[in-house]
Amino acid sequence: MFTAQYFKFCGLRCSPLNAALSFNEKTMDYEELKKQGIESFLADEEHNKADRIERFVELNELFGPQGDKLLTGGMQSQLALHEVANSYVNGNYMAVVLLAQAFIEHSLSGEFIMRGQNTIAESSFKKIIDNSLSESIISEGLYVSLEVLRKIRNPYVHAKAGIKSGSLIKKMIDGRFESAELLAKSDALESLSILKAFMEQKVVMWFSEDEA
User: Fold this and answer.
1) In whole angstroms, what is the distance from residue 196 CA to residue 138 CA?
2) Could you give the CA distance from residue 188 to residue 96 in angstroms, rounded to a whole number?
3) Could you give the maximum distance between any two Cα atoms of the chain, in Å?
4) For residues 181 and 11, is the Cβ–Cβ distance under 8 A?
5) For residue 146, how many C-alpha atoms fall within 13 Å in the half-sphere facing its CB?
6) How far apart are CA 120 and CA 122, in angstroms?
7) For residue range 132-174, what is the model confidence (pLDDT) as tens digits?
8) What is the DSSP letter of 91?
9) pLDDT (tens digit, 9 = 90+) per residue, 78-104?
10) Residues 6+ apart with CB under 8 A from 88
11) 3-class SS at 63?
C-alpha cells in the first residue's frame, strides 16, 4: 500500500513506493496496512495544505487570469499545461521543469508539423529551438530563455558521473543549496517564468464574453 510519510534525507518526503516495497505479506495484514496508509495519506494532506495553498497563490500571481487558448502542440500541450500547474502546487518541482519544456517543445513542433517540416518537428529540443530562431518563429530574446530552460532541464534527464560541469550535484554545490529539493524549487520557478514568457509570445489566448 502506498503511504505518505517522511524520512530525513535532503529534507525530502518519502516516496510512497518506499512503503510499498517494505510490505511483507507473511507478517503484515494487508487490510490493516491499507487502513494505516489511508490515514497517513490524509494526515499528510492536512499537514501540507498551507504549503499547497501558498504555491497555488504564487502560481496564479505569476500567470494571472487564464482564458481560452489555441495550442499548436495539441493534446500533449494541453496535458503538460494542466499537469505543470498541479505539479507546482503539490511541490513536484522536477516535474515542473520537465513539463514546462515538454509544453514548449510540443508547441513549437506543432508549428513545424503545420508547415510540413516533420523532420524538424521530430528532432531534439535543441534543434527545434535553433530552427525556430532561424525561421523567425521565436525572437532572439525568447531563444536565449529557451536555451536557459534546456540547460536547467539537462541535469534532470542526462547522467553525469561525479562532480562535473552540468551535473546536478555540481549545480547544487555552486548555488549553495542545502538540499536537492531547494535547488529543484529554484529551477521550477525559473522554468515557470520562461514558460510564461513563451506563452505571452506564442500562445493565442482570449476571454469569452458572458452570454446575456
Assistant:
1) 14
2) 6
3) 65
4) yes
5) 27
6) 5
7) 999 999 999 999 999 999 999 999 999 988 898 888 999 999 9
8) T
9) 999 999 999 999 999 999 999 999 999
10) 55, 58, 59, 96, 188, 192
11) helix
